[in-house]
Amino acid sequence: LLENIEAADWKVPQLHLDLNLTEIHSSLVANGQALGSDFSINADAPINRTNGRFVFNRIDGSFSIADAAKVITNLAAKTNAIDPAVTVPPSQSNGSFSATLNGNKIAAAEMNLILKPLDPKLASSIAAKANWQPEKPLALALEAGGLNLDAAYDLQNASYEGGMKLDHFNSARIEPWLAVVKTKLGGVIDLTGSWKGNGEVKPNKHRGNLVLADAAWMRTDLPAVNASGEIAYDFPSSFTTKSLVMKSNKQTISLDAKLSESLLELTNLRWLDGSVEMAGGSAKLPVPEDLSKWREMISNEKKPLDVSIESKVLSLALLKDWLPAAAKLDRKSTGQLSLRISGTYAEPELLAQMELKNLRSPEQPKLPPADLKITLSGKNARLSIDANATTPTYPPAVMTASMPFRPAVWTENPDSITQEEITARLDLPRIDLSKFSTLLAFAQKLTGILTGNVIVAGQLGKPTVKGSLDLIGGSIELKNKTIPTIGGVTASVDMALDKIMLKSLKATMAGGTLQAGGTLGITQGKSSNLDFKIIGDHLPLVRNDLMIVRANANLRLTGSFDKAAVSGSVGIVDSLFYRDIELLPIGSPFVAPSAAELPRLDSAAAPTAAIPAPFHDWSLNVLVSTVNPVLIRGNFAKGSAEGRIKIGGTIGKPAPDGEVKISDLQASLPFSTLKVQKGFVRFAPATGFDPILDIKGTAEPRPYRVNVYAYGRASAPHLVLTSSPPLPPNEIMTLLATGTTTAGLEDPRMASSRAMQLLIEEMRRGRFLIGKRLRPLLGLLDRVDFSLADSDPYSGSAYSSATISITDRWFVTAGMGENGNSRILGIWRLSFR
Known about the structure:
By secondary structure, the chain is mainly β. It has seven helices and 47 strands.
């Protein structure tokens, strides 16, 4: 038993050897572990003892690998040919070997190897056989699920001869093995046919015959492509094809090809859809006898080129079997292609034209159709491109480009093509954006004029690209009327290969203005560093029936595109909170209210959860504060709020830190006023935008003083009610609603007077239609409290009275009793807490 055997970077943790030796026989049994799998080797060899020596005439043996998948996976660390990310099918490998010896030297050898998956459904088994004899070609055989190959390779002459038969050989059966060696076919191939040939590797000469009875290429979500035909070749001097045809659905492409006397001829090229011809053509191209000398041929060959391919006017949708993207085009979209090449390789003349008409996608029926025409011309050592795209009622977008056309020079010095001077220009037409408003589902109206151009100059390898886009008179009106129309939009953008510069952006929005500018870097075609500045003046952030919020903004966006930072300040200005609310539901039955509590505010699902990367990870360092207090107004309340909140964290996970202070809040109750001298709404990174409430207020429905305290998180607030003199919470709610306790309402006369008084109060505060119209006049009486038939707690007499506050402690009251008695009192109030 041997353990931890190491050689270079190979390790065998365990090896058990059993050697048996007799006068006429020897055997070896080896069992061990390597590359994560158990393995075994068995060998037998007869012994012939001659002149005191051991002479072996033959060795026979077998071997096995218990877990071939693990061995292949571990080999990925030792060779780049194996993909370490691929899951190898669970499999095992076994085989046999034999050798004939002459004087203890190998005279012939043979080996058989089988790689077999444990589950035959996962992949096909692969069987290989090799036989070697001196001065004879190495014989090889391979079998794998419908493929049988027999070949012989002469090691001395580097020549080969062989044959192969394919009987519905399906690549899906060996695809798991191909993936191991980083080979992907892009579909499933099913082959039936045969090949027979021979050749010499060093002089690069090959002869043979390939017969494809049926070759099918099956692609995902696309029709299969079938091919059949015969190719006879004597490479590189000649080859011919016979009945070579490709089919996909009802379309066929047929071609006859012949290589003879260094001339490749392509004839009878036909592309049919059923019986209708779609395209046709022919070609004659000189080919060197020695392909390694193709550069010399391009420079010196004088034989003429003759290529002519032309299509009919086709519906582009017919190309969907070959080009999947064509399936997205309307059937009325058509195209025509022509290609003509003449001259020589060194001085070719080229004319290629492609004309596409009525380009339209059924997915965008409101998008106007477009026509595109591209002409590529090469003549007199100059290559030029002319292209234009047009849509109805618009001038065309035009592109022109040109550069030297010197194939012979490029062949001799491939790097020289990158040094050729190029000029190109693309001019966009004057585009009226109003034509495209129907493409934006969220837009009611879109206006603006867009113009631009792109200019390319310099060397082809290092071109200088400059472009510009300009927008004037832009505006967008949204279907969501809560968002004001954005108007007066003007923008100017400059573009280059290494950056995009927003020179200026200006817009107005409901009296507010927005200005922006900055740059976005481009590195290897991807967004890199950015630096933008945004300035807003009285921008409307929220505008609805409840709130109007405007803000001044001074923001900066800097850093890499993947990890940018937003910093700056936002100042709230000229903002208002307004709402008419009935704090207590008048007209609804009111019987023994339960303990008071504030309504819970549901925590909204985080709106940032849907923000995609990398914007989700952009950091925040923004200070939000009130430049002017936010006014609180309504039929029930008045006051103001101001605050200062620093927002950190990221856009995907913002972390606010600060507080909002509520000042001088007065809420009108039916028989008293709730006053909040000071309250706080505090934000912390731990709770995010679910703030902590800390609000204290008082109300004085005579002769009581009620204290209200709201605290806790806004999503789960708590409310505490206390009074002086003390009352239980339900009595306090009755007191706030009716101006008296439940005991006071037991007297029918008192209950009737309270109902009448409540009706008058509701009218005086403008909660009824006629009260709203008289509110400007009745508002003068806001400092006056009225009571009807209110019982005097000292004399027991009922008085209807009016009380006006002079200061917080001095009051004057005038009243009339039920017997016509009248009184005027001065009251100085002393409160004990």
